[in-house]
Automatic annotation (TrEMBL):
Any one of the GO BP annotations: fatty acid metabolic process
Protein name: BAAT/Acyl-CoA thioester hydrolase C-terminal domain-containing protein
Pfam families hit by this protein: BAAT_C
GO molecular function, one term: fatty acyl-CoA hydrolase activity
Domain spans labelled BAAT/Acyl-CoA thioester hydrolase C-terminal: 2-86
Domain of life from the UniProt record: Eukaryota
Organism: Armadillidium nasatum
């Protein structure tokens, strides 16, 4: 990504139950800075979980993965996550 001409938008869900979103975003930004890239934006959403879907999609704190036969915990809470999805949807238009 540090060699790309694209602009990057990092969506950081602060209560992601599946991935270390904040840590991985910090790593990506550090790599971009080290390579002189400045065309990125980081947006942090308090209370948001992993599944950032289109606005007004139902909130799911966890789902069942049929292939792996396990429940996956996505994190977040309904209100903050739904607000983040709505805001994120507008930013991506």
């Amino acid at each position: 990504m540090h060699k790309s001409d694209a602009e990057f938008l990092f969506i950081c869900a602060k209560e992601d139950g599946n991935w270390k979103t904040v840590l991985e975003t910090e790593r990506a930004v550090a790599r971009m800075k080290a390579n002189g890239k400045t065309d990125y934006e980081v947006i942090n959403y308090e209370g948001a979980g992993h599944l950032m879907e289109p606005a007004y999609a139902p909130f799911s704190v966890a789902t069942f993965h049929r292939i792996a036969s396990i429940a996956l915990f996505w994190g977040g809470n309904a209100k903050d996550h739904s607000d983040a999805q709505t805001c994120d949807f507008v930013l991506n238009l």
